[in-house]
Amino acid sequence: MTSYAEAGVDIAAGERAVELMKSRVARSRRPEVIDDPSGFAGLFDASAFLRYRKPLLATSTDGVGTKVMIAQRLDKHDTIGIDLVGMVVDDLVVCGAEPLFMTDYIACGKVVPERIAEIVGGIAEGCRIAGCALIGGETAEHPGAMKPDEYDLAGAGTGVVEASELLGPHRVVPGDVVLGMASSGIHSNGYSLVRHIIATAGLRLDQELPELSRTLGEELLEPTRIYAPHCLALTREVDVHAFAHITGGGLAANLARSLPATADALLDRGSWTPPAIFQVLAGYGKVPQAEMDRTFNLGVGMCAIVPADQADRAVELLNGQGVPTWVLGEVVPGSGEARFR
User: Fold this and answer.
1) Which residues in the chain come in under a pLDDT of 50?
2) What range(s) does the PurM-like N-terminal domain occupy (predicted)?
3) Dihedral angle, C-alpha 23, 25, 31, 33, nearest 10 °
4) What is the pLDDT of residue 8?
């Protein structure tokens, strides 16, 4: 008699994975989370919005790209979920929204309960760092479509911001200062180029390079820095005009999205030194500067645009929270571009 298990789907393994992840997910819980006895949906108490005059809901969805392939090759799965949360919540906070909750989706060739629990544990830890709740998710087994050790993950998040406190280009004016917040490394963009460089240069993930203080693989799996709680804390102390999350497309392209059509951002490339991993990639891959600029964050994971008279205070606050921050440039009259001096 033919069964679902013979087709490659192990229902019991899926149930085991759910049991293993429960305690980890619980660590991300917020007071507004309501238990759904059926488990089919995640519930969030919307009466929390009553304290807003005009609450705007913000939503974002993303994945981590081919960084998952590095995690799979190294058989290390407990941090890739942190990357997923960072990609989602740091998009939400750009408009000033507080991340409230997330859901996740994992597709895999074979459900290995312990591996799924590690992945979800990382997502839950990222949510805890960000201050949002992981209120639901789905794990799907795709035998035949994916190899047993392959998986991919995606997530969606929801946040809220007071309409009158919405951040963005409409607040930015010439004379403002652009602050750069250090990335923890590559974050979760550009890994197709990373893997191409590794293959063509004959590098190994377990290789120790003189430019790095740990193996290449460990450097590549460094989790994405989550900026959301720090950005929100900054808005409570400083008149922030805009944020820009530096992801695919690089610094200039992402920062330009937070500029009005009447202003440019002039950036000082000499104001910071990119982490060594970027020098490694550029050198071993023979990647020109322009290609590095539009592919990687080069050490700047988030930008804040603030009035000039509040820049020093903002830098002090963020550095005090453990986020290395510096004056990256200034806003001048222009046509909506970000460019280096």
Assistant:
1) none
2) 52-161
3) -120
4) 66
